[in-house]
Amino acid sequence: MPDEVKPLLGQELNWHPQLCIEADSESRTVAVATRHHRKSFYFDQVLGPDAEQEAVFSSSVVDLVDGFIQGLNATVLAYGQTGSGKTYTMGTAETLQQDRGMLPRVMERVFDALAQLKAAQEAEGQAGSAKYEVSCQFLEVYNDEVRDLLQPDTPRQQLSIREHGDGQIRVSGAAEIIVGSLEEMQEVFHLGSQARTVGMTLMNERSSRSHAIFTILLRRTSRAEGGGLQLVTSKFHLVDLAGSERTKKLGARGLRFKESVNINQGLLALGNVISALGDPARNLSHVPYRDSKITRLLQDSLGGNSQTCMIACISMDHSCLEETLNTLKYADRARNIKNTPVIVQKVTQPSEVMLLQAQLLRLLKQHAQQGQHDPEGAAEARMAGLDLLAQLAPDAVWDLLRMVYGRPLAAARPEHVSVAR
């Protein structure tokens, strides 16, 4: 059955005592009282100001992580006005251990699950029967331009959003770092966080001025029937959207005004995509994903191949009534989106591996012959590498082919990165 995008009500920490919101966790409803009428919204989960981060994770995110380990794509995104608690909820800011948000909890769950799978394989005498590779990317959309937070000096024109033949959206030119432990992934995240664009506004001392997407990628290789190799890939987007803003309320001028305009335009485009997907009467042959960079990057997550959870963060302050109502309407529309998550896998038979190996051997031999006049024995080095390649086992050749034609491998340390093709 197709999964629904799941709006979830979050809550900022510091709220004003003059309230306009009634949240009922049991009935999963939120009522907004205005001067003229009262409007109620129904959600999959409603959590009030006293809800702990663990409750949010266990009720709405943990199942997405388990599906991700099995090979399904997943997305968690937080939406709401500036200062409503999105960054706190996602865990993209420094907090106490018990207050850590969705992102660090997802990281922990991923590596705990992989450790359990490895232990189970060893207990069954099948150690190494399936190999898992974890890597990550960290991007931001700032003024509708994609920036690589792991290589912030990369010219933006070298980063391009592409839809591959399998329907997957990827960013060509973006760094991808392989990590072997939770600590290494945390190190990569902190490295990218230092490059995020933030700024001061009247509503938030450190306001996110960009949309940020931290992506965990998982690749599982195992033996298929008939001796072939099976590759299963999945990705997990954790999205911290910049807050919806009113420029007058923020006191935005100059650069801050330009940032606010671009933030609101991106969120408007996202709202248009959600409206198009959530309205059964509309023609889905044209969904305006290309109207902004953020909607293009999230194309898989909205109406595509992903399990997606949307966390709508609101304020109970009466002065935020208009923004709160807009956020609830936004999330209400998102509930109608139907995604179709499927496991993406590729099986390569031994004959195909041998054919690809032969093609690669010919290619390397050609380069070696052309480089015979290279200085300092470069050609000899290439020929030595060619001899070594000829001795590789098929699974090692597959890994090498993935380096050349697919997602290249990289060292586990952040200072050594690979570039996605």
UniProtKB/TrEMBL annotation:
Keywords per UniProt: ATP-binding, Coiled coil, Cytoplasm, Cytoskeleton, Microtubule, Motor protein, Nucleotide-binding
Gene Ontology biological-process annotations: microtubule-based movement; mitotic spindle organization; spindle elongation
GO CC annotation: microtubule; microtubule associated complex; spindle
Subcellular location: Cytoplasm, Cytoskeleton, Spindle
Gene Ontology terms, MF aspect: ATP binding; microtubule binding; microtubule motor activity
Domain of life where this protein originates: Eukaryota
PANTHER family: CHROMOSOME-ASSOCIATED KINESIN KIF4A-RELATED
Family: Belongs to the TRAFAC class myosin-kinesin ATPase superfamily. Kinesin family. KIN-5/BimC subfamily.
Function: Responsible for microtubule translocation. May be important for the organization of phragmoplast-specific arrays of microtubules. Plays an essential role in stabilizing the mitotic spindle. Required during mitotic cytokinesis.
UniProt name for this protein: Kinesin-like protein
Organism: [Myrmecia] bisecta
Taxonomic placement: Eukaryota, Viridiplantae, Chlorophyta, core chlorophytes, Trebouxiophyceae
